[in-house]
Design goal:
alpha/beta; 15 strands; binds pyridoxal-5'-phosphate; 14 helices
Length: about 450
C-alpha cells in the first residue's frame, strides 16, 4: 500500500481548505502540523488505536489518539454501548438528562473536596465557564494564568499587547486578533514553578484578582511546595484557585492529578477524556466557589443533551475498573525505552525528558530538529504508522502494537542515521517541513 500517494483524502483536504478557513477546527489536527502534503487529513473509521483514511489505507495511531480525548481508545465498546442505548432512547428532549445527577455524584465522590458540578461539552468553553463562575463569585475581574486553556477571549487576552506572553504555555505565538483590546491586562501569565513571578502578580494585582487558573501539572510533577505556595497566596488575596485537568486528568492517576499532590483547588475542570471521544466537560467546585453559578447567566442548549453524560458515566466506570492510568503509563514507559534504545543503537541524539510516560515525548537534539521530526513522521507514515515526537498512549495499545512500532522504529532510526551520515537531510523530505505553530494556511 502506498501511504504517500495523493488520493481522495489529500484531494478532499486541498478543496476543504478553500471552504474551511484554517483548514480544520483544531490546530493540532491540521495535517501541516505533521507532514504537509501527505498527512491524511480525514478518517473514515476509527477503532482502538487504529484508523482508516478515505482511500481505505489503515494506520496505527502512535500520536495523540484524538488529541488526548480517547484514553480508552477509539470507539471503546462499553462507551459505545452506553451511547447507542442513549441515542436509541432519544438523546435530546425538552426535559433534562437524569444521568447528570449520577455523574455529578460520581465526580464529587472521586474529588471529596468538591460538592457541586456544572456540565459543558468542549474544553475551551469549560474553562470559560469556570472563569465566569469565579468572576461572579468573587465579583472581581482579573485572572492569573499558567498553562494552556483553549481559544477563548478570557485566555487569549494575555497576549494582547505582548504576543509572546503565552509562549512556553504549550502553544507559542497565539494571535489574539479579534479579542477586544479592552481586555488587555485582564489575564496575567506566570510560568510553572516560578514562585517569584507569581508573587509579583499577587503583589501588584492581588486585590482585584478573581482567580488563578493553571494546569496543576503538564509533563512533570511540580517542584516541591510550588502548588501549596500558589494555593496559599491565592487564598490570602481572596481569589479562587482553579485547576485545569483537561489533558492531565485521569492519565497519571484516576481523577484529577491534583489528588496525587494532595493540593485541593476551589474549582477544577475536565473535558476531553471525560467522554472518551464524546463531547463532555465538567466544572467541579466547593459550594462557596460555585456560588456565582447561581447568579451569573450560564446556560446552553447542548449542555442538556444526554450522550455526553451517558458516555462519561461509562468512561469513568471503565477507567476505574481496568486501571487505565497504570496501563497507559506502562505502555508509555516501553515507548520511551524504545526511543532511547534505537537512538543509542544508531547514534542519534534525542532527549526524552523525565516527564509522565502517559504523555511520552522526545526531541531530536540537532540544529534542524524540526526537519528531523518531519522526516521521522514521513518515514513512519510510509509504513502505515501515524507518528510524531509525542505519544499519548491509550488502553487499546498493547504488546502486539508495540512490537509493530518497535520494528518500524528500528528501521526508521537506521535510515535517519544514514541520511544524516550522507549529509542528505535537506533533500530527504518529500514536501515542506512541519509547521511549528499557528500560521495562515492560504492567502
Ligand atoms: C489543559 C487544556 N485546557 C484546555 C484545552 C482546550 O480544550 P478544547 O480543545 O477541547 O477546547 C486543552 C486542549 O488541548 C488543554 O490541553
Amino acid at each position: 500500500m502506498n501511504y504517500l500517494e495523493n488520493g481522495t483524502t489529500q484531494k478532499l483536504y486541498e478543496y476543504g481548505k478553500t471552504r474551511i478557513p484554517a483548514g480544520t477546527q483544531l490546530l493540532s489536527k491540521r495535517p501541516e502540523m505533521f507532514l504537509p502534503g501527505y498527512w491524511p487529513a480525514y478518517f473514515s473509521k476509527a477503532k482502538d488505536c487504529e484508523c482508516w483514511d478515505l482511500d481505505g489505507r489503515h494506520y496505527y495511531d502512535m500520536t495523540t489518539n484524538g488529541i488526548g480525548a480517547c484514553l480508552l481508545g477509539f470507539a471503546d465498546p462499553d462507551v459505545s454501548e452506553a451511547v447507542i442505548k442513549r441515542v436509541q432512547d432519544g438523546s435530546m428532549c425538552t426535559l433534562n438528562p437524569p444521568e447528570e445527577v449520577e455523574l455529578a455524584d460520581m465526580l464529587c465522590e472521586i474529588h471529596p473536596w468538591a460538592s457541586q458540578v456544572r456540565f459543558t461539552r468542549t474544553g475551551g468553553e469549560t474553562g470559560a465557564v469556570a472563569v465566569r463562575i469565579a468572576r461572579a463569585t468573587t465579583k472581581r475581574s482579573l485572572v492569573a494564568i499558567c498553562g494552556y486553556h483553549g481559544w477563548q477571549d478570557w485566555y487569549l487576552a494575555a497576549n494582547l499587547g505582548d504576543i509572546a506572553a503565552l509562549d512556553g504555555h504549550l502553544l507559542p505565538g497565539l494571535n489574539p486578533l479579534g479579542v477586544p483590546r479592552e481586555l488587555k491586562g485582564t489575564a496575567l501569565a506566570f510560568k510553572y514553578n516560578d514562585k517569584q513571578g507569581f508573587e509579583e502578580i499577587i503583589k501588584k494585582y492581588g486585590d482585584t484578582l478573581a482567580a488563578v487558573v493553571m494546569e496543576p501539572a503538564r509533563y512533570n510533577d511540580p517542584e516541591h511546595g510550588f502548588l501549596e505556595f500558589v494555593r496559599d497566596k491565592t487564598h490570602q488575596c481572596g481569589a479562587l484557585l482553579i485547576f485545569d485537568e483537561i489533558t492531565i486528568g485521569w492519565r497519571v492517576n484516576y481523577g484529577g492529578i491534583h489528588l496525587k499532590f494532595d493540593v485541593n483547588p476551589d474549582i477544577a475542570f475536565f473535558a476531553k477524556t471525560l467522554g472518551n471521544g464524546h463531547p463532555m466537560g465538567a466544572v467541579i467546585g466547593t459550594k462557596n466557589a460555585m456560588d456565582g453559578a447561581n447568579t451569573s447567566f450560564i446556560s446552553s442548549t447542548y449542555w442538556t443533551e444526554s450522550v455526553g453524560p451517558a458516555a462519561a458515566l461509562a468512561t469513568l466506570k471503565k477507567m476505574k475498573e481496568v486501571n487505565v492510568s497504570k496501563h497507559v503509563n506502562d505502555i508509555g514507559n516501553s515507548i520511551v525505552k524504545m526511543w532511547n534504545k534505537y537512538a543509542a543503537k544508531y547514534n542519534i541524539k534525542i532527549d526524552t525528558g523525565d516527564g509522565y510516560s502517559a504523555l511520552a515525548h522526545f526531541k531530536f537534539v540537532h540544529e534542524s530538529s524540526n526537519v528531523l521530526k518531519t522526516l521521522f513522521t514521513q518515514l513512519m507514515l510510509e509504513k502505515g504508522i501515524l507518528a510524531s515526537t509525542v505519544v499519548y498512549s491509550t488502553f487499546a495499545h498493547n504488546e502486539k502494537i508495540l512490537g509493530i512500532y518497535e520494528q518500524a522504529l528500528d528501521d526508521v532510526f537506521s535510515r535517519i542515521a544514514n541520511i544524516l551520515q550522507d549529509g542528505k537531510l535537506a533533500e530527504s523530505l518529500k514536501g515542506p517541513e512541519a509547521h511549528t505553530g499557528f500560521a495562515r494556511l492560504i492567502n
